[in-house]
């Protein structure tokens, strides 16, 4: 039997199509999909304009343009980088178009999480992001004043002076109230504010005020424009005196206002809520329930129609599929239903395909602490018992085991050797069988080997760096070693 095998596609549609074309070109009898078939990377798609806005009672917000249909890939970075990341995501959506961008991401293995009834005012959000970019520039200036470019000194001096005045505006009661409100508002933002002085948040408050002009004062607009002009256009000039005059004009408007605390809060909250909302959306999209729905949609709306079309064009080529540790376990029923109607074979436990025995085993041992979805995790001793229960001494078997054997080139990572010791021991007990693995995408690239033997038993991990081109193998079951060939390396990469 002529078999093509690829694994760990993680919803990478372009690679899956290439894999099926490879099977066609090799005149395969059987196409084997290893574990981790479905997407684990997610991108948020904000809703298009229209519909109900949970904050729609604000007349000004209701009439302003919203962030419509923007695509934001996950995971989000830390809060210090969030604003820059969102700015780039919005710009990318605007430049490329949200719909084409979503399609590109789906081709590369992303699932798209459609956010419902969450709207963002585009102008206010972009004001906030611009203010944060300016803030980042200012707060990352060298601590050694002598190292600050002379052209930036007027800006630095003016804002330093403002913050000294700003700090003096807050008495103990105002500071306590401000920090308490900040904590309440940003309870879901990474980081704490207990040790911050109001002036630290004042950087954001002042710059946010300038960016959005929420205090009605032409001098504020002039100040912000002057800073932008100095930084972007006339960096070589000396605008110090003009800038100081502008600062004095608007500083009194802001710092002497009776409602300075409310003004500060009004420009801090949109930033805090932007962070809180973004991280809340991320958590919502990354729950097991959400992931199950996204992977279910991938299987039912894209993968199975793709397989059915392939089978219709190539009825003599069989398809077999197994899941892996990143596939939500409850979605097994999708593959079971597909198996019942003859679309494919679901490799869970023992199956016989065209007279040859196959066994699929999706469980893995010792996932890293950072992995939150652990439904497929098993102890080594339990894995050993599971595998031995599936062994048939008198029947040659093709084993699809998601986790490769420990202490082999098939399980090498940048952090050292990984893999399962139970799988390695079991391979030694199964002479004459062939084992197909996945899970560790980079191992063949690191070691230069996609085939290795354990006490004479052949094991194969083709790797899964599909972004750089399809990683897959083709072989004849009559003589795996003599016939196996890799899509990238050909006959190179056999064990030495």
Write a structural description.
This protein is α/β, with parallel strands linked by helices. The chain folds into 3 domains: 2-37 and 295-486, Purple Acid Phosphatase, chain A, domain 2; 41-59 and 68-119, no CATH class; 122-284, no CATH class. The chain has helices at residues 13-25, 59-63, 79-96, 98-107, 122-139, 153-169, 172-185, 198-212, 218-232, 240-255, 260-285, 288-313, 332-340, 380-390, 421-428, 443-447, 480-483; strands at 2-6, 30-33, 41-45, 71-73, 110-114, 318-321, 345-346, 349-353, 356-361, 397-401, 412-413, 416-417, 434-436, 451-454, 457-460, 473-476, 485-486. A 6-stranded mixed beta sheet has the order 7-6-2-1-16-17. A 6-stranded mixed beta sheet has the order 8-9-10-13-15-14. A hairpin with a 2-residue loop joins strand 11 (412-413) and strand 12 (416-417). Helix 3 (79-96) crosses helix 5. The chain starts with a strand and ends in a 10-residue tail after the last strand. Residues 51-66, 185-223 and 230-236 have low confidence and may be disordered.
Layout of helices and strands:
Blueprint: E1 2-6, H1 13-25, E2 30-33, E3 41-45, H2 59-63, E4 71-73, H3 79-96, H4 98-107, E5 110-114, H5 122-139, H6 153-169, H7 172-185, H8 198-212, H9 218-232, H10 240-255, H11 260-285, H12 288-313, E6 318-321, H13 332-340, E7 345-346, E8 349-353, E9 356-361, H14 380-390, E10 397-401, E11 412-413, E12 416-417, H15 421-428, E13 434-436, H16 443-447, E14 451-454, E15 457-460, E16 473-476, H17 480-483, E17 485-486
Helix pairs in contact: 3-4, 3-5, 5-8, 6-8, 6-10, 7-11, 8-9, 8-11, 9-10, 14-15
């Amino acid at each position: 039997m002529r078999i093509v095998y690829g694994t760990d596609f993680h919803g990478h549609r372009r690679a899956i199509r290439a894999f099926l074309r490879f099977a066609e070109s090799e005149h395969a009898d059987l196409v084997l999909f290893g574990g981790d078939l479905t997407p684990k990377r997610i991108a948020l798609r904000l809703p298009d304009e229209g519909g109900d806005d949970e904050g729609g009672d604000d007349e000004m917000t209701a009439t302003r343009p919203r962030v419509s249909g923007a695509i934001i890939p996950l995971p989000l970075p830390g809060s210090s980088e969030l604003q820059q990341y969102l700015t780039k995501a919005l710009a990318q959506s605007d430049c490329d178009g949200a719909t084409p961008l979503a399609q590109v991401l789906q081709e590369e293995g992303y699932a798209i999480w459609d956010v419902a009834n969450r709207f963002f005012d585009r102008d206010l959000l972009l004001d906030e992001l611009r203010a944060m970019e300016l803030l980042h520039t200012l707060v990352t200036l060298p601590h050694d004043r002598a190292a600050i470019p002379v052209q930036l000194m007027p800006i630095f001096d003016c804002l330093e002076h403002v913050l000294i005045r700003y700090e003096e505006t807050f008495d103990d009661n105002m500071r306590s109230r401000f920090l308490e409100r900040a904590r309440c508002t940003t309870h879901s933002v990474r980081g704490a504010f207990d040790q911050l002085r109001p002036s630290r948040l004042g950087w954001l408050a002042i710059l946010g005020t300038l960016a959005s002009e929420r205090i009605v004062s032409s001098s504020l607009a002039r100040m912000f424009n002057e800073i932008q002009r100095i930084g972007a256009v006339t960096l070589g000039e000396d605008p110090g005196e003009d800038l100081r005059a502008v600062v004095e004009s608007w500083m009194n408007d802001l710092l002497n206002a009776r409602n300075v605390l409310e003004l500060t809060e009004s420009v801090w909250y949109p930033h805090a809520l932007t962070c809180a909302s973004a991280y809340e959306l991320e958590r919502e999209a990354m729950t097991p329930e959400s992931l199950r729905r996204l992977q279910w949609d991938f299987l039912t709306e894209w993968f199975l129609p793709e397989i059915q079309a392939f089978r219709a064009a190539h009825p003599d080529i069989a398809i077999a599929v197994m899941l892996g540790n990143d596939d939500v376990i409850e979605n097994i029923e999708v593959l079971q239903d597909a198996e019942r109607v003859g679309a494919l074979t679901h490799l869970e436990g023992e199956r016989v395909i065209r007279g040859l025995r196959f066994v699929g085993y999706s469980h893995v041992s010792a996932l890293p602490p950072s992995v939150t979805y652990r439904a497929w995790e098993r102890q080594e001793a339990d894995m050993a018992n599971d595998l031995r229960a599936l062994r048939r001494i008198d029947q040659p078997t093709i084993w699809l085991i998601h986790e490769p054997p420990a202490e082999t080139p098939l399980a090498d990572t940048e952090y050292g050797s990984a893999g399962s010791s139970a799988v390695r021991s079991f391979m030694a007990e199964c002479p004459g069988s062939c084992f197909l693995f996945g899970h560790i995408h980079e191992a063949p690239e690191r070691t230069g080997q996609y085939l290795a033997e354990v006490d004479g038993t052949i094991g194969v991990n083709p790797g899964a760096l599909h972004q750089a081109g399809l990683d897959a193998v083709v072989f004849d079951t009559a003589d795996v070693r003599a016939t196996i060939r890799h899509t990238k390396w050909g006959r190179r990469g056999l064990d030495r």
